Amino acid sequence: MPHHDQAIERYLARETARPDTVAVILTGSVARGTERVDSDVDLYLVVTEERWADADAADLLMYTEDHDIGYDGGYFDVKLATLSYLDDAADRGDDPVRDSFAASRVVFSRVDDLDARIARIHPSSLPEAEWDAKVASFLAQARLYGGYFLQQAAASGDQLLLRHASVHLVTSAARALLAANRVAFPGPKYLTKLVAGLDSKPDGFDALLTAVLADPTPATADALLASLEAFTGDLLPPAHTLSRFARDNELAWRYRTAPPEYS
Fold first, then answer.
1. What is the pLDDT of residues 26-76, one digit of tens each?
2. With CB atoms 3.0 to 4.6 Å apart as the test, which of 60, 151, 205, 216 could cross-link to 55 if both were Cys?
3. Dist CA 191 CA 174 (whole Å)
4. What is the phi/psi pair of residue 27, to 5°?
């Protein structure tokens, strides 16, 4: 929309005058062409390592501002990055950061290879083995939360554990399905819509997710797990489930990895 384009031009006029600005990358709905009239403008502001360090010290690695936005309800949603940040994202970025670059657009750059760096972050750059590992990890999560924690909560009457287990079961089952379809996870608020739009999934899967949230019982949990197991096949043998869950969660501190929920 013209007012978004004009806002970006004003932002660039200000930021590109700074020698410590390396590039500006447009992301979010404006980059995808799905913006509303009042949508914010999502940006990665790529800066020098020195400017990053200063922003880190000031707790300003991410911020919003409405200066120069020029329309009601709008603002710039800015995330700082560096060239090394982009390389790290390509090597070990989580789903949300990969998804954020999937439909991005470079609107300013002082480096020649920026497009190539961004292409390495794209979800499609992940090897098949990494996608299969994601499916296996989320399957282990679903089995433990649905087949053990939720069952224990139902038997003991622990409502906190019951709600906790049901949310984790649904999230894990949905993310296993996303990974099986090679779809990155941008964040919880998009999960229901993404699962609804998948081409390959079990019949009635969306309803099974809803049933667990609405009525978290052993019966609804078992039905969801059975559907997921039939879809994923023998990717993770049952005997390997507990070890996979422990490595991904209880041993994450030792391996310096994020638990699947935050990957």
1. 999 999 988 888 899 999 999 999 999 999 999 999 999 999 999 999 999
2. 60
3. 7
4. -135, -170
Partners of 21 in beta bridges: 47
SS (H, E, C) the chain: CHHHHHHHHHHHHHHCCCCCEEEEEEEHHHHHCCCCCCCCEEEEEEECHHHHHHHHHCCCCEEEECCCCCCCCCCEEEEEECHHHHHHHHHHCCHHHHHHHHCCEEEEECCCCHHHHHHHHCHHHCCHHHHHHHHHHHHHHHHHHHHHHHHHHHHHCCHHHHHHHHHHHHHHHHHHHHHHCCCCCCCHHHHHHHHHCCCCCCCCHHHHHHHHHHCCCHHHHHHHHHHHHHHHCCCCCHHHHHHHHHHHHHCHHHHCCCCHHHC
| Residue whose pair of structure tokens reads 């932002």 in the numeric block | 11
The CA angle 252-256-262, to the nearest 5 degrees, is 60
> Distances in Å between the alpha carbon of 66 and those of 51, 56, 187?
21, 21, 24
- Do residues 85 and 120 make contact, with C-beta atoms less than 8 angstroms apart? no
- pLDDT tens column, 76-88: 999 999 999 999 9
Mean pLDDT of 148-161: 98
Calpha distance 31→4 (Å, rounded): 10
Residue pair 146/174 in contact (Cβ under 8 Å)? The answer is no
Q: Are 121 and 87 within 8 A, CB to CB?
A: no
